[in-house]
Specification:
With 288 residues, the chain is of the alpha/beta class. It contains eleven helices and nine strands. An eight-stranded parallel beta barrel has the order 2-3-4-5-6-7-8-9. It is globular. The model has no long low-confidence stretch (mean pLDDT 96).
Length: 288
């Protein structure tokens, strides 16, 4: 599934239940699956770095496991994107996170992933939903992000995923264009349909050089109950949605590079969804 204009892959890859769909046998470690994964898909999202800065040994393992043509996307650690520490109970007082948008902490992260940087298509900043106590609104968010981005090394593929639907206005997409930063479209519960956001702001979005689309799905608990956490079949088909998303990707790739990452929670089996979408997109844009 390699194409110079777009890449399709999955959100993470370490699933024993993908045997035999993707893997020939169960492996003891995530890194051991990567080589076989790369025979089926041209990119993958590294989700685990969201929870901690990786050690260089694991980064080098990932690099060695896949061919040079293979690429990654990754999430920066949540310690950089959380405005406040997570509350154990909703009634707990908010406690400011001192490493929120910390340049020093981000540079530590960047140094740790340096061996893989040439093959990373998007370094993603994923934010939780920000209520008024955490962020006054979209203007303050852009001010904080702008100040942070101006401190970072230029020329890297930064991408931002806000999870406040009221942030996704024209000002936001102009902000990204000015900062040479990609938007991460997230098809998920409580967010607007990504193709509708794209249609509304496509003239501005077409000024970006790349975009990331993440298909996350609906109620996580509900689909986990349906699958029993065995991600080997589609249990919530979204055929009409996929047609619209394929059309969106076909439109995007005429203007920029696009990365499409599918989560198991979207339909129940990310590899099957990825293959379906690859066929739908190829019908619209042709094979490379």
């Amino acid at each position: 599934m390699n194409n110079p204009r777009y890449r399709i892959g999955t959100c993470s890859w370490n699933y024993d239940s993908w045997v035999p769909l993707v893997y020939s046998r169960v492996q003891p470690r995530a890194a051991d699956y990567l080589g076989e994964y790369a025979r089926h898909f041209g990119t993958v999202e590294i989700d685990s770095w969201f929870y901690r800065i990786p050690d260089k040994r694991s980064v080098l393992e990932y690099a060695a496991a896949v061919p040079e043509s293979f690429s990654f996307t990754c999430k920066v650690p949540q310690e950089i994107t959380l405005t406040h520490h997570r509350q154990k109970k909703k009634s707990d007082p908010l406690e400011f996170n001192p490493t929120f948008l910390s340049k020093d902490r981000f540079m530590q992260f960047l140094e740790s992933i340096e061996p893989l940087l040439p093959r990373i298509d998007a370094i993603m900043f994923e934010f939780e939903y920000l209520n008024k106590q955490k962020m006054a609104g979209p203007q303050q968010f852009m001010e904080r992000m702008g100040g942070f981005l101006r401190q970072l090394p230029i020329g890297l593929p930064y991408a931002i995923e806000p999870r406040n639907k009221n942030y996704l206005g024209a000002d936001w997409f102009w902000f990204l264009a000015q900062h040479k930063t990609a938007h991460v479209f997230s098809q998920k519960l409580y967010m607007p349909n990504i193709w509708e956001v794209y249609q509304q702001h496509r003239d501005i979005i077409h000024q970006h050089d790349r975009t990331v689309i993440r298909l996350m799905g609906g109620d996580r608990k509900q689909i986990e109950e349906k699958t029993g956490n065995q991600w080997d079949r589609v249990v919530e088909p979204r055929d009409q949605e996929k047609e619209k998303i394929a059309g969106m990707v076909a439109s995007l790739v005429g203007k920029m590079f696009a990365i499409l990452s599918i989560n198991n929670h979207y339909e129940g089996c990310a590899p099957i969804t990825a293959r379906d979408l690859a066929e739908m997109i190829e019908k619209r844009v042709g094979k490379p």
